[in-house]
Design brief:
Layout lengths: L5 H101 L1
Length: about 110
């Protein structure tokens, strides 16, 4: 080092210092980047879990709605069948009453 001029020694010292600081800065930036990536991955996993939960709830609601719709259709059919049976009973009763009335009028 004694063969070098002061200026060359300063350049070498500055170059080494700059390289050292650059390496340290790159290392800190890489660590910060990795930490941020891990934090984002955790958020993504959390969001995925929330989406999965919402999908499960939506599927359950669809199943429940389908079940309720099926029950409603069965109830309407049953009610319609009951009404038709009652209508037939009433019209049958009215016919027999009408026939009796017609027979009485003929006599």
């Amino acid at each position: 080092m004694s063969d070098m001029s002061i200026e060359e020694q300063i350049r070498i010292i500055v170059k080494d210092e700059v390289e050292s600081q650059t390496i340290e800065l790159e290392s800190r930036l890489q660590k910060a980047f990795n930490l941020e990536m891990e934090r984002l991955k955790e958020q993504i996993v959390e969001l995925k879990n929330q989406v999965d939960t919402l999908n499960e709830r939506a599927n359950k609601l669809e199943e429940e709605l389908s079940s309720r719709w099926g029950l409603l259709v069965k109830l309407r059919k049953y009610t319609l069948d009951q009404l038709m049976a009652e209508y037939k009973r009433l019209t049958g009763s009215m016919r027999s009453d009408q026939e009796e009335s017609d027979e009485n009028v003929e006599k």
